[in-house]
Fold this protein.
Amino acid sequence: MSTIEEWRKYREHAVSDFQGDLALVAMHSIEGPTQVPGIPGLWKPLAADQTGLSLTASARDGITVDGQLVEGTVTLEADRSIVRFSETLTATATHQPGSNHLLAIYDAKADAIARFGGISSYPENPEWVVEAEFVSEDRDRMVAFAHKSDQSGTVRHHESPGDIQFTKDGVSYRLSPFASDGSLVIVFGDKTNGKETYGMGRMLVVSIDAENKVILDFNRAILPPCAFSYHFNCPLPPAHNRLPFEVTAGEKQVVHRAV
């Protein structure tokens, strides 16, 4: 495993990359044949239960998908196909529960990247490396999460095959993660939110060993994508994922510099 210093450098590079969180400048819901202002091409959703989009364009539009010039109609695999309009402007098809057909637009010269001065973090503290247990539930279990940009009272249901249980100061806590790209992601809140850390909470990516053991290394707690761009519609911690104490570990805030 990388050292905490290596991991933090990786994180700052990742969020400021050409399709990093800071580069997201628009998120469009494609519900039917759509021409998106400012970019060429005709965009269409795939089948209702299928993620991804189709793009129709001519060679004179100058659009490439995974390095190939588009002439006609191509299918964009969600979170895989890279669409390029220019040296700096790119896009991907993406999705989230309840929204299978999203088009994310990235600008490698976005103002947010120019202003980015790093991510503030707490000093590494081994006391925040916590042993936990994965408590398996129904593999098809779904858990409701409210999202930052949705109307109040609206929830989206994420796959969550079990809970993660740990004990602190003699008290047992149970967190519900959601499944994402083969890992489990815990979105959690704690008493530092809105004071020392990002107000909407933070995230922690975890893996499970063969004996259902989990290590919660809060030193590697990360800011959610919406801390870097308000175009992300991030899940919010459900009530039982809001810890009643301060987690003084991990990332704190995005640092901005004058430009």
